[in-house]
Amino acid sequence: MGLVTPSGGLLFWMVIIFGVVFFVLAKFGFPIITSMVRKRNDYIADSLKEAEQARAQIEGVEEKCRQLIDEARQEQGKMMEQAQTSARQTIEEAKASASREAAELLAKARADIALEQREALASVRNVVAELSVAVSEKILREKLSSDEAQSDFVAKAVDQVREQQQKLS
Length: 169
Description:
Blueprint lengths: L7 H136 L3 H22 L1
């Protein structure tokens, strides 16, 4: 049982060696270890502060991104509305222009038709007048073959012209 219960001398030397080792560690080892632990704690605290600052910056950037996205959507909506307004206005202008051109073409066509109609009527009147004169000439030559018939005809024609002039006056 000597191994389980130490003797007094062994216990004495163990306490002395433990004291020397503790003194050496307390004098040289513990200050280095505690300073390293303190440095590590400071480094961790600084890292946590930096991480908190980075998180705050990221939140700020995210908020700015959201604002930019909202502004971009609003601008897109405005641009779409302007494009639609411009398209409607262009279509209305094109319709109005087409209507004006159609009205101008219709008026020109009507004027051309009226002119052609007048020219055709004038041409028909000329032809009818020429035919009438030709027919009248033939009839008058046959009827007015004598001098007396010619004198009567001229007198009647002069009387008719005078009556027409009196009606017009």
